[in-house]
Fold Peptidyl-dipeptidase dcp.
Amino acid sequence: MPWPLPWDSPCRPTASPHPPPRRPLLKPTPSFADSTLPLHYPPFDKISDSDFAPAFDAGMAEQLKEVEKIANQKAKPSFDNTIVALEKSGSTLDRATTVFFNLVGADTNEARKKLQADYSARFAAHRDAIWLNDKLFARIQTCTTNAPSWAWMRKACAWSRSTTATSCATAPSSPTPTRSRSRQ
């Protein structure tokens, strides 16, 4: 189906619907390196609980760098360079947490419970660091505000609208007392 939007529309999604190739960690571990198993399942028999903390730390640092790059870029905000880029950020953290929380749900142990307790506040602070980023939120608002009102475009921007709606309490445009409570 051809796109009825002009080529220079700021919210025209041009990225491929296929996921990007997986990026390995700086030092691949069995739990997070690309797998040859069907559907890229990790080799659960080779995963060590000690693999998770370094992967979480590296993944959070990597994602914050990616988010800062998105927030500080000079290009005009668009669906591709803001929304799609934000969705693609944090692939290392995403892989590590997906494996970890699947293991915690199916086969927990004391080490995993401790990791979960130790990292729950860190994950919350990490998420807040992203969603309380004033420059990033301004880019998201620009993209969603400039989106055409056609029904199919509303569906294409569903992610940005739902994310924007759910993060309104912590949004930079929210009243300062609300944002201050969110940072506590």
About this structure: Residues 1-9 have pLDDT under 50 and may be disordered.
